[in-house]
Specification:
The complex is a heterodimer of chains A (215) and B (387). Chain A contains ten helices and two strands, in the order ααααααααββαα. Chain A has 215 residues and is an all-alpha fold. Classes of the chains: A mainly alpha (215), B mainly alpha (387).
Chain lengths: 215, 387
């Protein structure tokens, strides 16, 4: 057993962080976690809180499952993963209720629904069960960032065009409204989130040649 | 004509491969075929021999829309006179008011839509498609007259890009582009698309409007339960009522329908089955009527709101409708059926026709699939028996 110790931020580990941001983005490429991306992106603030919550749950769950990976019997691994995720989500939920009550109310059931976020389960199954804690941690963070970035971009445009504000701060001046401008009511409705995600996928695919399928 | 042909031929080499304006080839091609029937001849493969190409087809639809458009302009003037309490006014005077209000909307719709179409054709190296010739006139006709022009431009851009180009352009779209534009405005800017004030020119500005004029469309009155305020059958048939620019006159729509059917461009199956579907739902509602709106005679529903307009010009869109003969009947019937259902049961959406057609657009491929499968099954059975 004469294995060389891998540096903490080796090229391979960095790739774990970087890939989910573009080439294997959980939302725009793997098309996972769409449900929450549509539901909580009306305003920017809840979207940011949601992204951070998911990042916390995903990174910690990845580490825990990675530590336990040799002692989890394969036949009951799903339920073990669920227990870990659920405990973490309850933790997040309680913290949000205690310190960010308003936002917690806006997010409503979607905090609880982090448990069912397929990105988290997917990473546990696909990565944490077969890798050491440190790479698992990076993988969790990377995927959470890939998820969060899309969430924040969508929420930014929906809040800007739907309510004329950014983080509840009025950015479209009153003069523009006097000129006849109106907030776009469709932006507040969930279908528009789907269309915005679609446009992001469109732009991403036309710029990233790796993602263009040959047919 | 001859000098025009000569001019086109003279500048043509510049747009061909290696020419100065090679990049604008599709733009040039679009204008050339718009002016002259192209002289390219199909030599290989099975094809239909017909003098009618897509540009000619589209122009026929635009012609069929002209009665609705002209009547709509006159009606805008008429409603404006009603609202401001003025009497009389010659036909031309009324028409001029409407023309001034509607013409900018048409220009904005065409300029925005065609600019995007040309840009996409240029980028993708396609030919410019003719689809927008019809959409560009349909969009103004289904909007209220006082809609701000920037909203028209935005909705047109949305309809062309999200409703059409992302699916691959004309002929590939799932939804009817004109209705996509209307649905976009309906949900994005409801205060400009619903209510009583938007349907009459000058009413939302509120100048010189007399108190007794409400501007409510017959559908709004019916939804509010004021059945006594409904205009007479003749008024609804001829269309001297408030409403979207081109939808009010059932008569003008029927003239257009006759032209479409005569030239074989519109599908008679869809039109007729849509009307039957509406009639059946109307009768069903009559049987189970619990409020005055449900008691309206079924045939009156066919003249209310945009039902006739939607059935003749929107449902028959050859791209987004069902393709199989049986499928067309099912598709049309369900449009009529759902349109009346949405209109009567859900007061938040008085214009159920738009939603019904968009919904059935989604289901059209499914309907076709099952019609084709059923036919295959039938033929398989026959093959077994004879074997």
């Amino acid at each position: 057993m004469n294995k060389e110790k891998e540096p903490l931020f080796s090229a391979k580990n960095l790739k774990l962080l970087r890939e989910p941001l573009n080439d294997s983005n959980p939302i725009t490429v793997q098309v996972l976690g769409i449900c929450s991306a549509l539901a909580i992106t009306v305003q920017l603030k809840p979207a940011i809180v949601m992204a951070l919550s998911v990042a916390f749950v995903m990174a910690v769950a990845n580490v825990v499952i990675s530590l336990l990976r040799k002692s989890i019997p394969p036949r009951i691994r799903i339920i073990v993963q669920l227990v870990v995720i659920a405990s973490l989500v309850i933790l997040v939920d309680q913290i949000l209720k205690a310190f960010l009550f308003e936002i917690s109310k806006q997010l409503s059931v979607f905090v609880g629904l982090i448990i069912t976020n397929c990105i988290i389960m997917g990473r546990l199954e696909a990565f944490a069960l077969a890798n050491k804690p440190w790479p698992s941690f990076l993988d969790g963070l990377g995927n959470a960032a890939g998820y969060g970035v899309i969430l924040i971009i969508v929420a930014f445009f929906r809040e800007l065009l739907g309510s004329g504000t950014i983080l509840d701060y009025q950015v479209i001046p009153q003069g523009v409204y006097n000129f006849g401008y109106e907030n776009n009511g469709l932006m507040i409705l969930p279908p528009m989130a789907l269309i915005v995600v679609g446009i992001i996928i469109w732009i991403q695919r036309s710029r990233n040649k790796k993602l263009i399928e040959s047919n | 004509m001859n000098s025009l042909r000569k001019f086109v031929d003279k500048i043509k080499p510049q747009f061909e491969k290696g020419g100065k304006f090679e990049k604008l080839q599709s733009t040039f091609e679009a204008f050339e075929t718009f002016l002259f029937v192209p002289n390219t001849v199909t030599t290989k493969g099975a094809h239909i021999r017909d003098a009618n190409d897509m540009k000619r087809t589209m122009i026929m639809v635009v012609l069929a829309l002209v009665p609705s458009l002209l009547f709509g302009m006159w009606n805008i003037g008429l409603q404006h006179f009603h609202a401001t309490g003025q009497e009389g006014g010659t036909i031309l005077e009324l028409f001029w008011i409407g023309f001034k209000a509607v013409f900018p909307i048409i220009v904005v719709s065409y300029v925005t839509g065609l600019a995007i179409e040309f840009a996409f054709a240029q980028i993708r190296g396609h030919e410019v498609n003719e689809g927008f010739l019809v959409s560009g006139i349909l969009i103004p006709l289904v909007l209220p007259v006082d809609i701000p022009l920037w909203m028209v431009a935005l909705a047109t851009a949305f309809a062309v890009v999200i409703g059409k180009e992302v699916f691959g352009g004309t002929g590939m779209n799932v939804f009817n582009p004109a209705l996509t534009a209307r649905a976009f405005l309906f949900f994005a800017y409801p205060s400009y698309m619903t209510g009583n004030a938007v349907w009459t020119h000058g009413m939302s500005a509120g100048e010189g409007i007399i108190d007794s004029y409400t501007g409510a469309t017959p559908l709004a009155e019916a939804a509010a339960g004021n059945i006594d305020n409904l205009p007479s059958v003749a008024e609804m048939f001829f269309g001297t009522i408030p409403g979207s620019i081109g939808e009010t006159s059932t008569l003008a729509v029927l003239i257009g329908a006759a032209l479409l059917l005569f030239t074989g461009i519109g599908s008679a199956r869809i039109m007729i089955s849509t009307f039957i579907g509406g009639l059946v739902m109307g009768l069903l509602l009559n049987i189970f009527a619990v409020n005055p709106f449900m008691e309206i005679p079924a045939w009156e529903h066919l003249m209310l709101g945009g039902f006739a307009f939607g059935a003749v010009f929107m449902a028959t869109d050859p791209v987004s409708a069902a393709q199989t003969p049986k499928g067309k009947i099912i598709y049309g019937f369900l449009i009529g059926f759902l349109a009346i259902l949405i209109r009567v049961i859900n007061p938040a959406y008085p214009e159920g026709v738009m939603l019904a057609i968009l919904l059935m657009n989604v289901f059209a491929p499914l309907i076709d699939h099952y019609v084709v499968q059923a036919n295959m099954k039938k033929r398989m059975k026959r093959a077994k028996v004879s074997a």
